# Entry
Amino acid sequence: MNHLETLNSRFAIAGQLRFDHAGDGLIVAEIANAHASATLCLQGGHVMTWKPATAGAPVVWLSKLAKLAPGKSIRGGAPVCWPWFGAHATEAGFPGHGPARTVPWEVTGTRTLNDGSTEIALAMVDSDAIRAMWPHPGRAELLVNVGQTLKIALTTRNLGDSDFVIGEALHTYFQIGDIAGTRVLGLEGCAYLDKAGGNVRQRQEGAIAFGGETDRVYVDTEAECVIEDARLKRRIRIAKSGSRSTVVWTPWAEKADKMGDFGSGGWREMVCVESANALENCVTVKAGGSHTMAVEYRVEAMM
# Structure
């Protein structure tokens, strides 16, 4: 029995969850229930799409040119950044945002909950390559619940006898009608590092609106954020726990064109609002302890 057959034998749920190949040999979990549909790639533990049954358009955005290939990051969805966010502090050759988003994860369980939602649990597969970059006895686990809302919980377990520090993010891309008609609320008054504006520290005044490349790390905030989408006439609510940073990002036209996997005008139809622990909000995980960062996304119509 091959790996795909084993997965379906052990973890498929009739009428709700099955595994199949996608792209260049990767395995994807395809989830569909009465509440929503979603796809999740086992490489990276990467939720790629989520669309509630009542939504006219997907809520989690995936580029039409996203590459599903071994060892390559996927443009869109909800990439897992772990155990650091952004560039590594000392090693320029290490992958940006850590190795978690481009390595295999294994399924550890699936089930249907009482409300009809579908749950899938995963753990990152350890390897010599990961230990060479991050030599700590730790384990990353992901719990995803697909229903009327999308819930993702990232847990870091410290299996050693010394504390260690992690940075992390769920780098989620949200589908919007047009970036020019979109605002993000909830971060008013927060301090942020403006990475697209010379790494200057500033304070947010009013709602976030977009007129060019935006790359900001907001710190010391546990606030719920709301994406107001005038074109699609909806709000996406982003609630979180165990997270003290929020990252807001759009590449705009020039940077998106250089990246090559956004598609023509794809950057206009997405915005990233990332729940994170970055900069001074990096987390110390105590020896023998654990830390969980969790998010819940929901969508509602704008009246």
User: Anything to note?
Assistant: Residues 3-301 form a domain with the Beta-galactosidase; Chain A, domain 5 fold (CATH 2.70.98.10). The two ends are 53 Å apart (CA to CA). The helical segments are 3-11, 128-133, 252-259. The first helix runs from residue 3 to 11.
